[in-house]
Backbone:
């Protein structure tokens, strides 16, 4: 712009200079004749020398005046040009900044009304662009947040089969980094074959598709509900496919637990009912006539019905505890008092097996707990220790505390539990030695109930056990502070 400005000015000077030069030349040529005729007309007699003198003086004055006019015109022209072109240059500069994406740029040119109008229009345009840019940024941010926090893995693949959008869940799910994925062909990512096939299907059919797939990630089977759909842009242009993947492994696991539970309950109910039915049939067939047989069969029927009753009671108890919204009546509770009651309740069985308690309590600890529920927990644990220990052994009860929890330990010298079995003993109906536990009259629900009750107290239970040596159950309940 500046050079254009200068060029215009130089052109102007040349033009004006030329005109003035021609003018000077013409005047210089004409003036002596005019003066000579003026002198002769007015009968002024001058010598040739004097005339020459006058002519020279006039030539000098005219040359001087022409120079003066030239300088004056140059000055005025320069100012005029600057006033006219500088604002335009400023506005052009602003427009150039806008095209570069700098929407904060503003024109400040002043000048005639048309320049001001042009400046205002450019500034309004800049403001509008700035607003649009801001809205676009907000929308982009929103979309990004949505994609990142939608709770499902998402990947978008364009028409050339390269990945255009991918979210964190997807990357974490397959242990990939953004650089390994973005702009790469989806077949080079090492995705599970099932997933690749699914994406292929959506590519081929260009129709929405939903499927449950089973994939192996880090030697672990995961179940995914996958949804794929073609992405169609403006004017029906096909842009690629979007795949959304939801992890349903937990749901499948729960479904399996439910199925197992129904199978277990049916199995547990069938055993006592079959024996009740069998023995009563034998009695009805005539065995009742033999008094000895009658009493022994009735005893079995009584025991079996007791077992049924226990099972149903435990099931009801468990279902109550597992109900949503189940809560315990938390109050400051003495662990020592809890243990005393639990010992009282279990000592008849202890005596039956000629076992004894070794109580190791240095001082009482107060916890936030439900007195009756805690008694239920420790009766269960002590009963297990009695059931799964040989005769003439000792059960040690300890009360301890740390910064957060009051801790009770129930340690026996029983058969112990294998390491691999420990996490499973809290499952419903799980028994380590199926036959032996069933003979002991257990339903396999005791520890499931214990675990739920401890969790309702915001506490925890840990197990340490060595086969053939014994088991130590450690229950931590939040301290009363
Ligand atoms: N102290 C222990 N020593 C050895 N094994 C144990 C001990 N406590 C629990 N177990 C094992 O864990 C299993 C589950 O215990 P849980 O108390 O849930 O069921 P149960 O004792 O069989 O029946 P119940 O519902 O009548 O208590 C038991 O069958 C037993 O195999
Ligand atoms: Mg038990």
Residues:
């Amino acid at each position: 712009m500046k050079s254009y400005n200068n060029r215009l000015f130089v052109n102007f000077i040349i033009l004006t200079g030329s005109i003035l030069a021609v003018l000077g030349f013409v005047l210089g040529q004409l003036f002596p004749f005019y003066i000579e005729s003026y002198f002769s007309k007015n009968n002024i007699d001058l010598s040739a020398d004097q005339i020459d003198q006058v002519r020279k003086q006039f030539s000098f004055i005219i040359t001087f005046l022409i120079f003066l006019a030239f300088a004056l015109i140059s000055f005025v022209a320069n100012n005029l040009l600057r006033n006219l072109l500088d604002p335009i240059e400023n506005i052009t500069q602003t427009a150039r900044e806008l095209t570069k994406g700098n929407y904060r740029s503003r024109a400040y040119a002043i000048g005639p009304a048309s320049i001001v109008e042009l400046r205002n229009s450019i500034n309004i345009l800049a403001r509008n662009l700035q607003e649009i840019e801001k809205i676009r940024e907000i929308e982009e941010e929103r979309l990004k947040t949505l994609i990142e926090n939608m709770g499902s893995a998402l990947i978008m693949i364009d028409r050339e089969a390269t990945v255009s959008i991918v979210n964190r869940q997807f990357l974490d799910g397959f242990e990939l980094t953004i650089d390994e994925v973005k702009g790469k062909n989806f077949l080079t990512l090492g995705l599970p074959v099932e997933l690749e096939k699914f994406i292929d299907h959506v590519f081929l059919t260009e129709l929405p598709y939903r499927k449950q797939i089973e994939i192996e990630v880090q030697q672990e089977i995961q179940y995914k509900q996958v949804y794929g759909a073609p992405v169609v842009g403006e004017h029906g242009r096909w842009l690629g496919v979007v795949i959304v993947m939801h992890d349903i492994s937990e749901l499948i696991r729960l479904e399996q637990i439910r199925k197992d539970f129904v199978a277990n309950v049916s199995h547990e109910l069938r055993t006592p009912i079959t024996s009740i039915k069998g023995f009563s049939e034998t009695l009805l067939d005539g065995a009742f006539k033999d008094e000895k047989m009658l009493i022994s069969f009735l005893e079995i029927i009584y025991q079996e019905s007791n077992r049924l009753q226990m099972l149903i009671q435990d099931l009801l108890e468990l279902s109550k505890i597992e109900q949503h919204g189940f809560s315990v009546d938390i109050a400051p509770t003495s662990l020592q008092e809890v243990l005393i009651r639990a010992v009282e309740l279990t000592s008849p069985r202890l005596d039956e097996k000629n076992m004894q308690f070794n109580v190791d309590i240095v001082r009482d600890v107060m916890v936030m707990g439900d007195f009756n529920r805690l008694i239920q927990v420790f009766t269960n644990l002590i009963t297990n220790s009695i059931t799964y220990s040989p005769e003439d052994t000792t059960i040690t009860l300890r009360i301890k505390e740390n910064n957060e929890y009051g801790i009770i330990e129930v340690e026996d010298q029983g058969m112990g539990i294998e390491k691999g079995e420990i996490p499973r003993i809290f499952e419903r109906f799980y028994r380590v030695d199926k036959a032996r536990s069933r003979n002991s009259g257990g339903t396999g629900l005791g520890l499931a109930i214990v675990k739920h009750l401890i969790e309702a107290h915001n506490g925890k239970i840990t197990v340490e056990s060595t086969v053939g040596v014994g088991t130590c159950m450690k229950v931590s309940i939040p301290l009363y502070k």
